[in-house]
Amino acid sequence: MKQTMEKLVGKELRLRMDQPEDLRIVAHALSSDVRLRILAMIGTTSMNVNEIARELGVPVSTTALNIQILERAGLVSCEMQPGARGAMKMCVRGIDRVHISLSPTPRGERRVWEFEMPVGCYALVGGVQPTCGMANRNRKMNADDDVRSFYQPNHFEADILWMRAGFVEYHFPAADVPLNQVDFLELSFEACSETLGHNNHWPSNIYVEINGQRLGVWRCEGDFGGRPGQLNPSWWDATNTQFGQLKTWRVDRRRTYLDGDALSCVNLDKIHLDGAQDCIRVRIGVQAEDGHVGGMNLFGDHFGDFPQGLILRAGYYTV
């Protein structure tokens, strides 16, 4: 099975001498004849591991190992897709050019910009489906399962919000960060699935986008309960969702990571940060196209286990 992947054409990976670990990983990935042949085969079409192994004339296990090395280097993008005999791993080259600068880049002072956004301070909302609602530290806000409540002006007060499907989008101010100097973005928030009451075995695929670019999908395994969240107010019923998991999404010049593990080939170039932007747009949601529409809860600093809203960090060096 092959399909054209034109959207991945024209991507470049830039490396410098002050990135020794990245250089080693990429150099290792390019040091094998088998891996170079794989890169040539999947430059403009996607192929599954069995197809690649058959064309190379090597065992599937050997092919899978080499694909993992290329994927770790950010040179190959892989995703699971349904097939006639179950799920299959589709692979395509994610990079067309590798540029290595052997001259050290002069740097100024290392700085990290940070901004915390309350969960209720979203700028856009859409596609919301019940079960849904929101609450602040004192009470539930508006009626349960009333989609219209997400458009009420008091949504800014929310310390927790939940929906079975849909999205919320936050606009982080960019005036205080030099976007064209950023070398990583990091987003952290507490979340879990959403169903009536709670269910620790209720999977949901929750996605994150930055500036309209999909970073990837996190499979949350449940709408967590069974014990009180450490921050929940006393009036919050024990049958409700109690806590989530703190997830950290990081994008650098090479790829995207979720909790330190490689997630996708999306890098900073694909997010299109530039000095002309007024804000950094962060969208979190659940949609049918990703499967496992198990909803989401987003926790603020008065619910769940972690005293925070959504925290966005950007690392850069002064010029």
UniProtKB/TrEMBL annotation:
Domain HTH arsR-type, first and last residues per copy: 25-116
Species of provenance: Candidatus Alectryocaccomicrobium excrementavium
Lineage of origin: Bacteria, Bacillati, Bacillota, Clostridia, Candidatus Alectryocaccomicrobium
Name listed for the protein in its UniProt record: Helix-turn-helix domain-containing protein
GO function terms (MF aspect): DNA-binding transcription factor activity
One family name in Pfam for this protein: HTH_20
Coiled-coil segments: none
Source domain of life: Bacteria
